[in-house]
């Protein structure tokens, strides 16, 4: 069982090395080559995610006494995956800025300001989304509590009515 995990580990290592190399090439490429490279990296990242899922399944099958070592490896692989995705995202942002500049004929001076402004707005949107989700969760919980209170009141009403009938 651990041999399957180790096989997945080797595949993951090879794949992440390829992805890292390709991410480094993205800013140097132009046009269709760049588009194709981005598409290939996206496919490889998906493969890496699937490998991580397979590795997690294998870890679940490992006896509890030796699972700790494999779990710590999984955490480091997940961190590595997150770093790769962040690096890819940065290279894609640079890629999209270059494409936009080519289309609009921008000289690139204002693009840094626009990019910073865009990132700031994105961050605000994410914070607002999190607040909305928290508010929605509170509303759902409040609704559930209200429903429980109504059920309790209904039961109490029935008890009171039965008591009145007996009296």
UniProtKB/TrEMBL annotation:
GO molecular function: SNAP receptor activity; SNARE binding
Signal sequence residues: none
Keyword Transmembrane helix: yes
Topology class, membrane: Single-pass type IV membrane protein; Single-pass membrane protein
Transmembrane segments: none
Domain Vesicle transport v-SNARE N-terminal: residue ranges: 1-91
Swiss-Prot/TrEMBL keywords: Coiled coil, Golgi apparatus, Membrane, Protein transport, Transmembrane, Transmembrane helix, Transport
Highest taxon, organism lineage: Eukaryota
Pfam families in the cross-refs: V-SNARE, V-SNARE_C
Compartments where located: Endomembrane system; Golgi apparatus membrane
Coiled coil: 31-61
Chief localization: membrane
Gene Ontology BP annotations: Golgi to vacuole transport; intra-Golgi vesicle-mediated transport; intracellular protein transport; macroautophagy; retrograde transport, endosome to Golgi; vesicle fusion with Golgi apparatus
GO cellular component terms attached to this protein's record: cytosol; endoplasmic reticulum membrane; ER to Golgi transport vesicle membrane; Golgi membrane; late endosome membrane; SNARE complex
Family: Belongs to the VTI1 family.
Subunit structure: Interacts with distinct SNARE complexes that contain either STX5 or STX6. Interacts with NAPA and, to a lesser extent, with NAPG. Identified in a complex containing STX6, STX12, VAMP4 and VTI1A.
Name of the protein this chain belongs to: Vesicle transport through interaction with t-SNAREs homolog 1A
Taxonomic source organism: Amazona guildingii
Lineage of origin: Eukaryota, Metazoa, Chordata, Craniata, Vertebrata
Gene from which this protein is expressed: Vti1a
């Amino acid at each position: 069982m651990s041999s399957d995990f180790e096989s997945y580990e080797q595949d993951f290592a090879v794949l992440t090395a390829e992805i890292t190399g390709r991410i480094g090439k993205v800013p140097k490429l132009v046009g269709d080559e760049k588009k194709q490279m981005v598409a290939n990296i996206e496919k490889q990242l998906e493969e890496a995610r699937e490998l991580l899922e397979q590795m997690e399944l294998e870890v679940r099958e490992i006896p509890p006494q030796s699972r700790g070592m494999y779990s710590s490896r999984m955490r480091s692989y997940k961190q590595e995956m997150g770093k790769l995705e962040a690096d890819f995202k940065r290279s894609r942002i640079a890629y999209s800025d270059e494409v936009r500049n080519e289309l609009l004929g921008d000289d690139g001076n204002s693009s840094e300001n626009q990019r910073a402004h865009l990132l700031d707005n994105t961050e605000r949107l994410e914070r607002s989304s999190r607040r909305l989700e928290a508010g929605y969760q509170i509303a759902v919980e409040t609704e559930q509590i209200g429903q429980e209170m109504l059920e309790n009141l209904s039961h109490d009403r029935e008890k009171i009515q039965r008591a009145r009938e007996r009296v």
